[in-house]
Design a protein that fits this description.
The chain has helices spanning about 10-20, 80-95, 125-130, 135-150, 160-170, 175-195, 195-200, 200-215, 255-265, 280-300, 310-325; strands at about 25-30, 35-45, 50-55, 100-105, 115-120, 160, 225, 235, 240-245, 250-255. By secondary structure, it is of the alpha+beta class. The strands form three sheets. A five-stranded antiparallel sheet has the order 1-2-3-5-4, with helices on one face. It has a three-stranded antiparallel sheet with strand order 6-10-7. Strand 8 and strand 9 (about 240-245) form a beta hairpin. Helix 3 (about 125-130) packs antiparallel against helix 4, helix 6 packs across helix 10 (about 280-300) and helix 10 (about 280-300) runs antiparallel to helix 11. The termini are far apart.
């Protein structure tokens, strides 16, 4: 596994971000990142006891085959300083809390990769807080629901990742539902190559995807969504407020895509985030598409050297079972 050990690069980076007297005491790699390295840096000689460093070095990206991805595709891997900063600015304009930035650098003069030094939010994840202080977690969840409402009501006539929209104003390529269908069919094909039960049911799954996609009506406005928001991507600050992280994939898209993911990841806590007037046909279609994505994606990740292999294999197996359960009775 890559390590962001202390050295001249890291010490210089910390002094640049926090002052000449800043010294690095220890470096901890945080688990879970698959597109960037996330490190907690323990410090002395400054008021800030610790910071988080995001490191977008190529050696920190465990996803194979990303060089072939269409950059205009909203589902293309979002990694690097440019999408991070575009997302941070967009969320800040809406009053959405993200970790405060101490320093960003894409010059490669201080460190040989894009890096960002950000606030170490002290309260841990919302996921962990549900286990230790349910009352406090429920309050933060209610505030998160309000935050998502603000984001989802922030509309655009074009869909796509915010960094790409900021650059070009639009992203070519049909409707959201067409994008999802094309991706789901690719995920199905890829999953079938690696998973026997998916392979056996592949014709039925393909037909069901096309049937569900065909029932969805066209839409002309899109909300702002995080795209991968689980309780592990919500930190809690010292005042109990939610703080969104892993924001690089922020995009305008159908809000139903976000709600399907929220329902999967928040489970019994999703009720606080649910909203009326969502398009049920989109929800049904996107649920099957997302289940297949959560089979193909983890299995693809296991083609590389991702360290937590049992965890990823478990995700793929669970979602394969759930995808098959969405098929109508024979």
């Amino acid at each position: 596994m890559p390590q962001f050990a202390d050295g001249d690069h890291l010490s210089g980076l910390m002094r640049e971000a926090l002052g000449a007297g800043c010294r690095v005491l220890a470096v901890d790699r945080l688990r879970g990142g698959s597109k960037k390295g996330v490190y907690r840096i323990h410090l002395a000689g400054t008021r800030t006891a610790s910071v988080i460093v995001y490191n977008w070095a190529e050696t920190e990206n465990f996803w194979p085959g990303e060089e072939d991805a269409d950059p205009a595709d909203p589902f293309a891997p979002a990694s690097g300083l440019a999408p991070f900063l575009a997302a941070q600015r967009s969320l800040a304009e809406l009053g959405v809390r993200t970790p405060r930035i101490h320093l960003v650098d894409d010059s490669r003069r201080r460190y040989p990769a894009d890096v960002a030094v950000v606030e170490d939010v002290p309260g841990g994840t919302l996921e962990a807080l549900f286990e230790t202080d349910y009352t406090r977690a429920a309050k933060a969840l209610g505030e998160l629901a309000e935050t998502l409402e603000v984001m989802h009501r922030h509309r655009s006539r074009h869909y796509g990742r915010v960094d790409l929209l900021n650059r070009s104003g639009s992203v070519p390529g049909g409707s959201c539902e067409r994008r999802v269908l094309d991706r789901a069919l690719r995920d199905l094909e890829e999953a079938a190559e690696r998973h026997g039960h998916i392979a056996a049911a592949s014709p039925a799954l393909r037909d069901r995807l096309r049937e569900l996609a065909g029932s969805v009506r066209a839409r002309a406005e899109y909300g702002l969504i995080h795209g991968e928001l689980g309780p592990d991507h919500v930190l809690i600050d010292a005042d109990g407020h939610p703080v969104l992280i892993d924001i690089e994939g922020l995009m305008h898209f159908d809000v139903e895509w976000e709600h399907v993911f929220l329902r999967l990841r928040f489970g019994k806590h999703y009720t606080a985030l649910a909203r009326p007037a969502l398009d049920q046909r989109r929800l049904d279609f996107y649920l099957l598409a997302m289940r297949l994505s959560l089979v193909a994606g983890p299995l693809r990740l296991l083609d590389g050297n991702f360290p937590d292999r049992a965890f990823m294999h478990g995700i793929a197996e669970h979602n394969a079972k759930e995808a098959l359960a969405l098929l109508p009775p024979a």
